[in-house]
Amino acid sequence: MQEHDRLAERFEHLRPHLRTVAYRMLGSHAEAEDAVQDTWIRLSRSDADEVENLPAWLTTVVSRVCLNVLRSRAARPEDPVGVHLPDPVVGREPSHGPEDEAVLSDSVSLALLIVLDTLAPAERVAFVLHDMFHLTFDEIAAVVGRTTVATRQLASRARRRVQGAHETDSGGDHSTRRVLVDAFLAAARGGDLDGLVAVLDPDVELRADGGPALVSASAVLHGAGPVAERAALFRQPGVTVTPVLVNGAPGVLVDRDGVPVSVMGFAVRRDRISQIQILLDPGRLAAIDFGAFKT
């Protein structure tokens, strides 16, 4: 086997890890794939024989690439409607085997990714690398170009912000969450406002992202009343709801007359739904293999 082929084989073995790092930093599947590919290009052009610890070297490189992407984003104008959801990770409902439990425990909620999107680029990188992947602050300092002390402060500031996401999505095992989601959907399809309010946290937040194609559908709503009224959309004819996992938690795929129209994620606090995330952007929905989750 040629040296280049051996290097490519080692890289492919590490690709899932690098993709996970990039997704948690960027919240975008396409950008994460681009970052990983950019990392491969940099590796292929480097003297790999001089790299003592390839996994650590690649993690550093992909992190730097992601930091550049985050800085580029920060320099761009804000979305005109101010609503953006991270790309969801959609999967089948678990059968509760060991592999499923591993997937669930390693998942990062949409609620957390939404908060990560509010962090400064260096804060996000420092938090993800330290709190999620357990790199030392010395290692992270080399990525963000700060001192070790300053890097520790970046992660600490991020951690305080992230605490809100943990509070938003802090309750219930998988079965409890699925029961709440099913009750919400049943009440929504039945037009039962009282039933909806009963499963919603009084301070529930709904975030809907329609993307550039459906700007008018984008919105942020707060409170059980307004969110319950928005849920009446499920009474429209031809709507089919398929239970799925969304970032490791019970969610749904929604289609109308066979065409996918939304992915919905749910956060739970104190046995009530505390946040609902709805991706309506047709372009991003098209990237999901909707048929793979049909029974």
Short précis:
The chain folds into two domains: 3-168, Up-down Bundle (Butyryl-CoA Dehydrogenase, subunit A, domain 3); 174-293, Roll (Nuclear Transport Factor 2, Chain: A), CATH 3.10.450. Helices cover 52% and strands 17% of the residues.
Description of the structure:
The protein is an alpha+beta fold and 295 residues long. The chain folds into two domains: 166 residues, PhyR, sigma-like (SL) domain (Butyryl-CoA Dehydrogenase, subunit A, domain 3, Up-down Bundle), CATH 1.20.140; 120 residues, Nuclear Transport Factor 2, Chain: A. It is built from twelve helices and seven strands. The protein has a seven-stranded mixed β-sheet. A hairpin with a 2-residue loop joins strand 4 and strand 5. Helix 2 crosses helix 3. It starts with a helix and ends in a 10-residue tail after the last helix.
